[in-house]
Amino acid sequence: MRLSQAATLGVLLSLALILTACGDESTSRSGQATAAPSGARTASRSAADAGCRAQLRPFLGSMDTLREDLAVGLSYEDYLDELGEVRGAYDRIRVDRLPVGCLLVAAGPGERALNRYIDAANVWGDCLATAACETESIERDLQRRWVLASDLLSSAQSGL
Q: Rounded to whole angstroms, how far apart are CA atoms 122 and 65?
């Protein structure tokens, strides 16, 4: 059974709220709940943010390079090479070490951007594999997918 994107997002947001609430208090020896020191929360959040940035910057940076190179023009082979670099950076991300907030605001949009770039590669490749297909006939579709990917990439970058 597959969940829709909206259902997945709802589950992740609920989990984020639950986990956030769990980290705000600690229990003293007497069993009384005590608030965690504000500085401890800030330091923990800063470390989590730094970990998020450290893991996602190579991935998002490689996609940003792809986006910039698309603006000046790429051959299909060059596009696939750059997409391979992006995929390699994506594969090196340790998702199990990313905080939930990072997954929601940066990693998720980044992954969806990558999927749009892959979709475009598939459309382009399918056209090239078909003798009757003219690349001009798919240009609009490719541009639409690249714009969606670019918007998602910008969203991921702003989430860092």
A: 20
Domain assignment present for residue 69? The answer is yes
Contact predicate 70/120, CB 8 Å = no
In a domain, 32, yes or no: no
Cross-strand bridge partners of residue 27: 33
Model pLDDT for residues 33-43, shown as the tens digit of each residue: 444 444 444 54
Phi, psi of 21 (to 5 degrees): -65, -35
Residue 103 is given by DSSP the state: I
Q: Evaluate whether 152 touches 109 at the Cβ level (below 8 Å).
A: yes
pLDDT, mean over the chain: 80
Amino acid of residue 29: R
| Structural domain for 148, as ranges | 56-160
- pLDDT recorded at residue 5: 54
Question: How far apart are the C-alpha atoms of 92 and 107, rounded to whole Å?
Answer: 13
Question: How far is it, in rounded angstroms, from Cα 97 to Cα 52?
Answer: 8
Average of pLDDT values for 65-71? 96
Which amino acid does the sequence have at 51? G
Could you tell me the two tokens for 9? 């997002």
Contact yes or no for 113/59 (Cβ under 8 A): no
Count of domains observed in the chain: 1
